[in-house]
Design goal:
Elements lengths: L2 H13 L2 H8 L3 H15 L4 E4 L2 E4 L1 H28 L4 E7 L1 H4 L3 H11 L3 E7 L2 H10 L4 E6 L6 E16 L9 E3 L7 E5 L4 H12 L5 E7 L1 H9 L5 E4 L9 E7 L4 E9 L6 H16 L11 E2 L9 E2 L4
Parallel strand pairs: 3-4, 3-5, 7-11, 8-9
Antiparallel strand pairs: 1-2, 5-12, 6-10, 6-11, 6-12, 6-13, 6-14
Helix pairs in contact: 1-2, 1-3, 1-4, 2-3, 6-10
Length: about 325
């Protein structure tokens, strides 16, 4: 049984005439008759009483008609849904991003995306890169903006931009008037530290240990907003992305030198799953936004765009 046979059958049943049905279907009348015969042979029962001038449904035809209509309606519905999805009129996109990006790059990116594709349901997961990797592996996320490199062979990654990390200090702090500080100068300086799972925590601790000391924590376990507020309140200082220190805000950004600390931001998704169309369009939206710098009220020191206007080649993350 084939779909076009059901379409022919329904048309003949509604028109009560083979020639009229053929005209409605825009096919030759012999083709309609031939396909109905094949359908009857397959079902093992006649579907129509053939009479001069018109036709009437047999009991078998009466039983088949509502079922055929239901099948054709379901098929049309499926075709419509697929067209909507491929045409970006409907769908769902689950995006992951680190907290610093969720307060800087992600809002204008999702705003632009929603304006272009209002029918796409958007879900944002905000977490540290380690947690986002777990959600990517579980299939919870379609795509995520994370800190690279990623040492997971299940993921594909693409670099987007490189950002300098700075020391955020309250304006009343002794270091607030400095243009730069070295990591060694943070020995004994109380730090407001992120919770475990943040790349910024691991980066800060590793830099201090390379300089020969263990960092001093004034407080640990914070999220991005909490770390910034606690730092502004004078609890301590914090190593943060340059993007999150607002010009004219309560914090000063002091550059870190000897050595300079940077991080690379990029896209990640499962390499065994092709990016959905909504995810592809999200990546394109973010790339365009970053290349145009429209999301920046200012360009922080040490911000290097790695993506530009053209899409870079996606690289497979290797396991270390």
């Amino acid at each position: 049984m084939e779909l076009h046979q059901l379409r022919y059958f329904v048309a003949v049943a509604e028109q009560r005439h083979f020639t009229k049905a053929a005209h409605e279907l825009a096919v030759a009348q012999p083709s309609v008759s031939k396909q109905i015969r094949r359908l009857e042979d397959e079902l093992g029962a006649p579907l129509f009483h053939r009479m001069r001038g018109n036709v009437a449904l047999t009991p078998a035809g009466e039983a088949l008609l509502p079922l055929a209509r239901r099948v054709l309606t379901d098929v049309e519905g499926a075709e419509s849904e697929v067209r909507d999805l491929t045409g970006m009129r409907r769908g769902r996109l689950s995006v992951g991003a680190t907290p610093s990006l969720s307060t800087t790059l992600i809002p204008p990116a999702l705003s632009r995306y929603h304006q272009s594709y209002p029918g796409i349901e958007l879900v944002l997961h905000e977490a540290g890169s380690r947690d986002l990797v777990g959600e990517l592996e579980q299939g919870v996320l379609d795509v995520a903006l994370v800190i690279l490199p990623m040492h997971h062979d299940i993921l594909e990654t693409t670099p987007l931009l490189r950002e300098e990390l700075v020391l955020a200090v309250p304006k009343s702090h002794a270091l607030a008037q400095r243009r730069s500080v070295s990591i060694a100068e943070l020995r004994g300086v109380p730090l407001v530290m992120f919770r475990d799972g943040y790349d910024l925590r691991a980066t800060t601790v590793a830099a201090c240990r390379r300089a020969g000391f263990e960092p001093t924590f004034a407080l640990e376990g914070g999220e991005m907003d909490g770390v910034l507020r606690l730092t502004a309140a004078g609890v301590g200082v914090a190593v943060v992305p340059s993007l999150v220190v607002e010009r004219g805000g309560p914090l000063r950004a002091v550059r870190i030198a000897k050595p300079e600390l940077t991080r690379t931001i990029g896209f990640a998704h499962r390499r065994d799953r092709r990016l959905t169309r909504p995810a592809q369009e999200f990546v394109t939206t973010v790339r365009g936004l970053v290349a145009a710098r429209e999301w920046l009220a200012r360009t922080p020191a040490g911000l290097t765009l790695l993506d530009g206007a053209a899409a870079p080649r996606t690289r497979r993350a290797t396991k270390s």
